[in-house]
Automatic annotation (TrEMBL):
<protein>
    <submittedName>
        <fullName>Ankyrin repeat protein 1</fullName>
    </submittedName>
</protein>
<dbReference type="InterPro" id="IPR002110">
    <property type="entry name" value="Ankyrin_rpt"/>
</dbReference>
<dbReference type="Pfam" id="PF00023">
    <property type="entry name" value="Ank"/>
</dbReference>
<feature type="repeat" description="ANK">
    <location>
        <begin position="151"/>
        <end position="173"/>
    </location>
</feature>
<feature type="coiled-coil region">
    <location>
        <begin position="271"/>
        <end position="340"/>
    </location>
</feature>
<dbReference type="Pfam" id="PF12796">
    <property type="entry name" value="Ank_2"/>
</dbReference>
<keyword id="KW-0175">Coiled coil</keyword>
<keyword id="KW-0040">ANK repeat</keyword>
<dbReference type="InterPro" id="IPR036770">
    <property type="entry name" value="Ankyrin_rpt-contain_sf"/>
</dbReference>
Length: 341
């Protein structure tokens, strides 16, 4: 991969090196990366202001410097790259979706302006978070609850498909929705319960059964049929027991707010704990710095004393040399006088 000197300097966070090579600003490598993207991707915030002329440039896939930064969780870069908020990659993804995909809640919290945007498949940032089981992102993205993808899938359906029980609990307000197009061999009209039954997730089936039992897909199949005809393999005994008497009476979808609030409270508690730990670490670091400063002062004093001692030693040596010279002169004079007499 070829890089310009400016890109290398930005990658390494070399402020002076970037400054000295700004004539290369605006250039891209074969992947379409700019120096700004290298700086953002490696959290070199010191170089970003120097490279602001590259803001808005996109790589070969439509990625931006902001997307590179949040992909790695570099939240401190986001304010410096805010002009790129709202930009989309070739497949319609936003920086918020990238951050949600990776579960970087520190970045997700800073990209609220991109909430509600859907990519080329109709997926939201919430759905991207669910793919990888990042339930802690759900409270930050709750405004996207209820949105359906191009094929009618919801965040709840994705959680049910991938077996993310914790996420399912927080997404129960989406129960009852059905797909509008075929997805992964599931016909239109498929529900989250049907998907969980198909993939053999008994805990999720138990959670969804009161809300979605009896619903049918476009072929007239219920969740029980999907469990009985799944080709996924494994022991479906528990699933079949749960669905053996699948009824048609359903309870209304619950309000997700209490569960989401509980999650927020838990996250806040964890954040406070982290803050206290950081405060403690900072205090310890300050003490270490004071001790190092004291040791440096002591070392400087010792060096000064040694310097004085060396100077005194040199003076003594010179005095001794002078004395020896005088003694030699006297001895020579004495010899001369004796010779005369």
């Amino acid at each position: 991969m070829s890089l310009t000197v400016l890109m290398e300097m930005a990658w390494n966070g070399d402020f002076e090196g970037v400054k000295a090579n700004l004539k290369e600003v605006g250039q891209k490598n074969e992947d379409g990366w700019t120096a700004l993207m290298w700086a953002a991707g490696y959290d070199n915030t010191n170089c970003i202001p120097l490279l602001e002329k590259e803001l808005g440039m996109q790589d070969n896939d439509g990625g931006t410097a902001l997307m590179k930064a949040v992909w790695r969780g570099h939240a401190d870069c986001v304010p410096l790259l805010k002009r790129e908020i709202g930009m989309r990659s070739g497949d319609g993804q936003t920086a918020l979706m990238v951050a949600a995909d990776e579960g970087h809640i520190n970045c997700v919290a800073l990209l609220e302006r991109e909430m509600g945007i859907q990519d080329s498949d109709g997926l939201t940032a919430l759905m991207h978070a669910i793919f990888n089981g990042h339930a802690d992102c759900i409270p930050l993205l709750e405004r996207e609850l209820g949105i359906q993808a191009n094929d009618g899938r919801t965040a709840l359906m994705l959680a049910a498909c991938y077996g993310h029980t914790g996420s399912v609990r927080l997404l129960l307000s989406e129960v009852g929705k059905q797909t509008t197009k075929e997805y992964n061999d599931f016909p239109p009209g498929t529900t989250a319960l049907m998907m969980a039954a198909h993939y053999n997730y008994p805990e999720i089936v138990e959670l969804l059964l009161p809300y979605e039992q009896g619903l049918k897909d476009s072929k007239g199949h219920t969740a029980q049929w999907h469990a009985n005809n799944s080709l996924e393999g494994g022991d479906y005994t528990r699933i079949r027991e749960l669905l053996e008497n699948e009824g048609t009476e359903r309870v209304p979808s619950p309000n997700s707010e209490p569960l989401v609030q509980e999650c927020i409270n838990k996250q806040t508690t964890e954040d406070e704990s982290v803050k206290k730990e950081l405060t403690s670490l900072r205090a310890a670091l300050d003490e270490e710095r004071k001790e190092i400063s004291s040791l440096k002062a002591q070392l400087a004093k010792t060096n000064e004393d040694l310097s004085h001692a060396c100077k005194d030693s040199e003076a003594v040596k010179r005095e001794l040399a002078d004395q020896k010279a005088r003694i030699l002169a006297l001895e020579e004079e004495l010899v001369r006088l004796r010779t005369k007499s």
